[in-house]
Amino acid sequence: MRRLTNICLLALPFLAIQCTDAGNDPTPVVFSVSDAELYAMQGAPDGWTFFGLTADTLAGGSTTAHEPRVRVRYNRRAATQLTAAGRVAAGALFPDSSLIVKELYTGSTLTTIAYMFKLGRAENASSSGWIWSETDGNGAVKISASRRGTGCVGCHSTGTDFTRMNDTHP
Ligand code: HEC
After folding, report:
1. Count of C-beta atoms within a 10 Å radius of residue 76
2. How many other CB atoms are found less than 10 A from the CB of residue 26?
3. By alpha-carbon position, which residue is closest to atom 30 of ligand 1?
């Protein structure tokens, strides 16, 4: 059994990853971040910053993957990579614990929440270090984080550290 003292705990609602290494167990820490944890994180207060500094929904730029109206927000850690105008900075590289939440609306109904959470050490992160997930507005899983971004990274690889908002909202 893995020793509790050697597990990284996701410290909600602080969105910080705390590691304690009190033992001498050389077993590498293996953990993943679940869809439910991502849903909980997006609902927690974390000084969210909206793309473009506006809480209005914007026209989505992806006709195939996402619904027509979008609103994207960044947790405090992710917001370190935004400009003063709330856009992704040139050459941005999001630090671990960055969470980007994309809310997708059909009319005024929140139909999908898409997540990009940076945590390179997580076993369900894609090679870029991002964990990818989609739920509906109530947290029911649509595309599980366990898929490691299959079906997401293809479109996103052209973006700034895999983020696409700057391309579609110049
Ligand atoms: C067909 C291409 C495409 C696919 C597939 C795709 N996306 Fe996106 N995604 C975009 C585009 C384009 C944007 C920029 C916002 C917009 O214009 O809609 C975006 C934006 C986002 C954002 C906001 C952060 C940003 O700037 O990129 C998140 C989070 C996101 N997508 C998550 C996902 C997840 C999770 C998946 C897979 C389940 C996925 N996307 C699959 C095209 C795609």
Report:
1. 15
2. 6
3. 114
